[in-house]
């Protein structure tokens, strides 16, 4: 570790630089605002208080920031990978990639999603909306400060992606429907023209035959 010093020999934190390894057999998280906001953003109260076991992380500090390289962790039954930094003035910028088991999601969310999927597939089998997978990948961005965290996630987008690209499927279904409709109209017109030509041909043959008979007389 290296740092510049003030006249009173206190370190100048923004000038500190160094690196190291963090090992912990267990870390208890309770009353930690970022964890509470994470739980609120995902509607998963079980994430509020945690004991994270077997932590192995590499960190470094420079330019007034304490950074951690991506390292695995487990929040209860939810595995994930965390990376990012906290500045010495408590600003945060972290990315947390979670793999959330379907069984841990609120039952009402699962019920509504599966009901919607069933209705959409009922409109047209060509939509092919998949069922909700057993594990849903979710990216969480953690910003703000330690005391006033700002949490965002892509849960909805990830769920839509996991169950199939609805927009693309709808567009393709509409295209196929229009294509089938146009083809049916064309086939119908071709049939009508053929029938009309056949009728005219039959009529012309009939008239010619009649003239021939009259000429023979």
Description:
The protein has helices at residues 33-42, 107-123, 155-162, 166-216; strands at residues 18-29, 50-62, 65-75, 78-87, 92-101, 135-144, 149-153. It has 217 residues and is α+β, with helices and mostly antiparallel strands. It has two domains: 13-164, no CATH class; 166-217. A seven-stranded antiparallel sheet has the order 1-2-3-4-5-6-7. The radius of gyration is 34 Å and the shape is elongated. The mean pLDDT is 77.
Main attributes?
217 residues, alpha+beta, 7-stranded antiparallel sheet, 7 strands
Specify the oligomeric state: single chain
- What gyration radius follows from the Cα positions, in whole Å? 34 Å
Give the tally of structural domains: 2
Helix fraction, binned, reads 25-40%
The biggest sheet, with number of strands, parallel, antiparallel or mixed sense and barrel status, is: 7 strands, antiparallel
**Strand order of the main beta sheet, please?**
1-2-3-4-5-6-7
What proportion strand? 25-35%
Q: What class, by secondary structure content?
A: alpha+beta
Total of helices: 4
Number of strands: 7
The best one-word shape is: elongated
Order of helices and strands: EHEEEEHEEHH
Arithmetic mean of pLDDT:
77
The poorly predicted ranges are none
Short structural description:
This protein is an alpha+beta fold.
Write the layout of secondary structure elements.
Layout lengths: L17 E12 L3 H10 L7 E13 L2 E11 L2 E10 L4 E10 L5 H17 L11 E10 L4 E5 L1 H8 L3 H51 L1
Antiparallel strand pairs: 1-2, 2-3, 3-4, 4-5, 5-6, 6-7
């Amino acid at each position: 570790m290296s740092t510049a010093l003030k006249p009173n020999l206190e370190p100048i934190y923004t000038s500190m630089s160094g690196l190291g390894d963090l090992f912990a057999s267990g870390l208890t998280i309770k009353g930690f605002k970022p964890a509470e906001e994470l739980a609120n953003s995902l509607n998963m109260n079980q994430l509020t208080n945690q004991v994270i076991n077997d932590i192995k992380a590499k960190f470094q500090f420079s330019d007034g920031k304490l950074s951690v390289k991506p390292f695995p962790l487990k929040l209860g039954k939810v595995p994930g990978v965390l990376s990012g930094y906290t500045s010495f003035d408590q600003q945060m910028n972290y990315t947390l990639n979670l793999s959330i088991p379907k069984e841990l999601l609120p039952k009402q969310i699962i019920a509504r999603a599966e009901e919607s999927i069933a209705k959409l597939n009922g409109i047209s089998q060509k939509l092919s909306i998949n069922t909700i997978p057993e594990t849903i990948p979710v990216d969480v961005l953690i910003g703000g400060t330690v005391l006033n965290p700002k949490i965002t996630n892509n849960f909805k987008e990830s769920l839509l992606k996991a169950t199939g690209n609805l927009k693309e499927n709808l567009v393709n279904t509409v295209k196929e429907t229009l294509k089938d409709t146009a083809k049916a109209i064309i086939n119908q017109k071709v049939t009508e023209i053929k029938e009309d030509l056949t009728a005219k041909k039959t009529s012309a043959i009939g008239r010619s035959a009649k003239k021939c008979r009259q000429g023979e007389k």
